[in-house]
Amino acid sequence: SLKNTSEAYERMVTNRKLGISLFLDNQRDMLTKLMGLYSYDELKEQAKLEKIFATVTGEGNIVDLGVIDAEGRHQAYVGPYREILMGKEYKNEPWFADVMLKGKNISDVFTGYREVPHFIVAVADPQKKWILRATVNSEFFNSLLQSVWIGKTGDGFIVNRGGKMQTPSRFGENYLSEGEKQLLAYHEGTAVNTIGDYMYVSTWLKNREWLLVVKERTDSILAIFYHARNLDFLIIAFAAVIVASIAALLVNYIVNRLEEADRQKAAMDSQMLQVEKMASLGIMAAGVAHEVNNPLQLIMDQAGWVGELLDEEDPKSMKNYDEYRRSVTKIKSHVGRASDVTHRLLGFSRKMENEKAMVNINSLIEEVVSFYKNEASNKNIVINKNLQDDIPTIMTDGNQIQQVFLNLLNNSIDAIDKNGSIDVSSTLEGENIILKFEDTGPGIKPELVEKLFDPFFTTKPPGKGTGLGLSICYTIIQSLGGTIDIQNRKEGGAVVAIKLPIVKPVNLLK
Fold this sequence. Notes:
Structural class: alpha+beta
Low-confidence stretches: none
Strand content: 15-25%
Radius of gyration: 28 Å
Number of strands: 16
Mean pLDDT: 82
Helix content: 40-55%
């Protein structure tokens, strides 16, 4: 069992390594392409650099951009630290010397003049006369590691060769402990080690300058199996003194408890599988950004340049001036739409941040149902609302919950097509709110139920669904501490059940 679990962790760490490496390569390639497109004199112009920065920072992966001469001084800078950094000397900084020697550099985390932990990506021109430098968005980069924080004791972080943290540890640690420093010994591929009470899975990044580490308590990993083992010992002890007349009851008790242990193990394996799927989706999304967003950015920049040239022309002297102007506008509009699509895909590789406020779930349902009132009426579909009156307001993210409700109602309407009904209900069950969306559609084939939350899996005809809707719903509900489940109804159709915990402001202050 420990071997199977460690293999799952190995796959997760390997996938995360690929995603991080692809992200870092993407930032470095972006700077290299900018250096190939623009000359040193062009990039020194503050207005030009600001325009380029506005183009490449759309996804929020970098926070500033600077042009530095061979003497280590900023010649142009765009970002929030202009007053601090302009005129500062970088010639003696380790990253500056490294990029002037090798032509490129991804630094370790340092505070520098801005006195805020950060790291940079920099490239030099072939003659080593100037450098183009960008600061990576630490919040976004750190989120790539937070998705491997599994359970209550799991942790994931990156350290340099000296054992210093390059991303935050879940538990606030700054350096590897003396015992953990043995992980810094070089190894090929992904290694699994047990040190003290923890299992460590590690792999080297960035030409063996960074080490990606995921750790988890072994007793947490094996808790289910320890529980089953201790239960066996207890049953054996009782069996020695209990009369044969109750032996049948004990055997039944053993079977029930072992089945519960198996269910818990299956739930843990399912969680690990979902984490792996989302990590793989993050890698694919980063690949899309690498292959698509850079050309889109260049197209947008060139379209802007054509627009500037048209501003200098006399409309009366150009036969097709208006057509040229409309074409530039269309190019910008469609590039923007394509960028929005890749941005939504990239959202899957990031850790969702909840913007929580007091939300009335019943009011949210009323609002969402009103959105689909006309569409449902046109298709002769009746939406029935059975909402319990005393449902309390809860502290949650209303925007994300609304997105879930919209996706579920849209799926139900698509499934029914015409002539049917959808029942939406809310009830209290202990410390939870239970929400159900029941439709009279054709239902779901039993063999497909377990695949419904997989990214890009859809039962809709080709061209009518992306397969992301239910996967987004699953991620949102899980991030808010709830559960979501889909089953077929006995009377036909499907039912989606959501359980949301009742969270109030007083709970958050404890």
